[in-house]
Amino acid sequence: MADTMQFDLVSPERSLVSVPVREVRLPGTDGDMTAMPGHAATIVTLRPGLVTVVDAQGNATEFAVTGGFAEINGESVSLLAERGHPRAEITQEVYNEMMREARRAHQTAETRRESLGDEVVAAAAKLLGDMEALGTHIGLDPNQATFPD
Amino acid sequence: MPSLKDLKNRIGSVKNTRKITKAMQMVAAAKLRRAQEAAEAARPYAERMAVVMAGLTAATAGSESAPRLLAGTGADQRHLLVVLTSERGLAGGFNSSIVKLARSHAEALLAQGKEVAIVTVGKKAREQLRRDMGKRFVHHVDMSEVKRVGYENAREIAQGILDRFDAGDFDVATLFYSRFESVISQVPTARQIIPAVIEGEATEVSSLYDYEPGEEAILSELLPRSITTQVFAALLENAASEQGARMTAMDNATRNAGDMIDRLTTVYNRSRQAAITKELIEIISGAEAL
Fold it and tell me: How many angstroms separate the CA atoms of B133 and B110, rounded?
């Protein structure tokens, strides 16, 4: 069995990362998981969080994603995320913007609870919570990101 | 017979026109390359999305609880046409061919007694459809501030469509845009996005994968994204098509202007020669008469 597999991080606008890796740790919606070469073929949705990529030399790189999904098979992991940033690039400003987006989504869901149903609102609330957790995890303050108004 | 001065002015003005069309052609060529690169860069995401969607749909096919975005509302009465065009003209038949396709589609639906609502993206669709379809406009997305089409734009448009669907405003949504085939060929295309039409072979893919959470949970999360991706792809194709069409149109215009300059110059030279000859004849016959 090969000891590395191909990892691709793809955003709708372009391909962000494409490297051979030894393992990938993913923040799945139902819980974190680690994919290594030879992993059973799986499609998993992601919550906002950190994706850790370990290359053949054992160096770990982290990426923050705002949800999306990953396609895992024995030889490759493809991560499709609407936004993905290397952890080093997540500054307070970038994070603020991500938080604002999540808050706005939550608010719209809240105001339209009638037509959308409780599940959608709960999902938006969970997303917001995950975003907050992500910020705290990488040492950024979720409360700094307030609405401009 | 126009005077020499008129001809000279005319030649000057056509030369100016040629300069402008030549410049527009070169700008379009540069923008086309960028638009094509953007379309190229967006392809991996769209392709993977399509594969996964195909697998998911196959896995949930026939299920009672399939999401409405996929299964539809069960009716086929109210249609939403989303017409994507550019903000600027001077791109040959680019905008009119999209609008023509959308209009014939709308007329066919109306003839069948269906209801039609129209969302326009870009100024040109709005202008061209206003006269006969103006009553059916429900929304317009202004793209004049957008320099470069981004995923955000697609998300905004898709969200608008999804909100309308959730509110129960329509049963079927169709996108109208121009598919970029080559610089000289752009094909106006209609693409149904709701209920989702999934293309491609799915059977082998679906059985291969485990889904976490279940197929349906993933499907209902991914369907809106898939629609956004399709809108995004259509916007990118449109952007490339627009520049391609403009480039071809301006290339033709430049060539026509060149031909016209040649013709006018010939006429000008002839008239000048005729004037000289006439003067000479006058002088000689005057001298002979003495």
Answer: 11
Q: What is the dihedral of CA B208, B199, A75, B40, to 10 degrees?
A: -170
**Minimum distance, in Å, between the CA of residue B9 and any CA atom of chain A:** 49
A24 and A51 both lie in a single domain: yes
DSSP 3-state of A94 = helix
- Residues B216 and B279: their CA atoms lie apart, in Å, by 92
Least confident of A118-127, B83-92, B158-167: A118-127
How many CA atoms within 13 Å lie on the side-chain side of B147? Answer: 0
From the list B151, B166, B217, the residue facing A12 with the nearest CB is B151
Burial string for B76-87 (b: 16+ CB within 10 Å, else e) reads eebbbbbbbbbe
- Nearest one of B105, B80, B26 to B97, comparing CA atoms: B105
Q: Do A69 and B42 touch (CB under 8 A)?
A: no
Find chain A residues with C-beta within 8 A of B165's C-beta: none
Instruction: Look at domain B26-249 and name its CATH class.
Output: alpha beta
Cβ-nearest to A42 among B209, B228, B232: B209
CA distances to B48, B145, B174, B227 from B151, in Å: 16, 15, 19, 12
Query: Nearest by CB to B44, which of A15, A28, A116?
Result: A15
In a domain, A114, yes or no: yes
Rounded CA-CA distance B248/B242 in Å is 10
- The residue to which tokens 């392709």 are assigned: B47
Which residue in B has a C-alpha nearest to residue A82's C-alpha?
B151
Distance CA B90, CA B254 (A): 13
Q: Which structural domain, as residue segments, surrounds residue A18?
A: 5-86
A80 CB neighbours in chain B (<8 A) are 45, 48-49, 52
Task: Please give the full DSSP string across B114-131, using - where no structure is assigned.
Answer: -EEEEEEESHHHHHHHHH
Of the three residues A36, A60, A86, the one that is the final residue of a domain is A86
ipTM value > 0.85:
no
Report the distance separating Cα A103 and Cα A130, nearest Å. 12
pLDDT digits (tens, 9 = 90+) for A69-125: 888 888 888 899 887 788 777 777 777 777 787 787 777 777 777 666 676 677 777
* Beta carbons within 8 Å of B68's beta carbon, 6+ residues apart: B165, B195
Look at A13 and B208 and tell me if their CB atoms are within 8 Å.
Answer: no
Short-list A8, A68, A72, A118, CA closest to B218? A68
